[in-house]
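Mods, move this if it's the wrong board.
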Amino acid sequence: MKIDKIVFSSSEEFSPFWNLQSFIWKEIFNIEPVCVLWGEVKNTNMSDKYGTIIEKQYNPNLVKSFQLTWSKFYQTMSESDKTWIIGDMDLYPLQTGLFTDVIKNIDDDVYTHLASNVVTNQRYEDFGGYLPAYFHVAKGKTFEKALSLNEGTFEEQVYSIINDGRFTYKNEVTLDAAKNMFGANSGNKVLINEEEYLYWLTDERYTSFKIYDSHKKGIINFKTSIEYQINAHESPSQTRIDRKSFYYNAYQNYNNSMLINNQLIDIHCHRPFEQQKDSLYQIIEKCFKKEIKI
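Not the wrong board. Structure tokens:
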């Protein structure tokens, strides 16, 4: 298996993460980046120098947050013979091995997932959580089969999945709790409407359910990449630079030796982008030993 394309979805508010993402994936990985932008490029500083930007407009009658998150999975159907990886706009890679060497011996017809220590081949309820909505890897036609992407239009799927009722926070988290987690009470610098947040992880819950169900029925062959993983014995917190480590305008307390020796997997960024840009650039340049030119 060799990854051809990475797909992101973004609002205008999260768009500042794109230019660096597209540079890294194109110039370092030789993987073509695609971004489904919910808004207009003219309202952002996004560049198509290193990747493709596709503008979309929200249907005001449907849940906006799920339109955004579901669109990157739906986009994989656009090129069925390409191998896609699902990206996350504020999550940058810190090594090439996981995305190239680790998966090169995985068969092309497999649906796999590259997040460390979070998946098994058991029931999706027993994953110890849900499959994260990033680092899914498969050919477009495999995504289509696994997630039933050909069943109805994009908007019909958004409506159906939301109204199913099983894949949201809505019955588990109160609006007040949502405000504390992601809204005005949270101190978060990038806010979404609290009611929208009740649907924020619908993509993780639904894809986990569908992957398990499709694998069980023999529709797809799902294999985790754990057996191939670099540092698979490490917990995610030990192989990631997390935004919690950002304070005094810099990322701190990460293992510099692991960074320069390609043993860290990714960096989950502080927000907003500009506030941590300088420190992030230093980490990326140190990691890949390449000057950022965007």
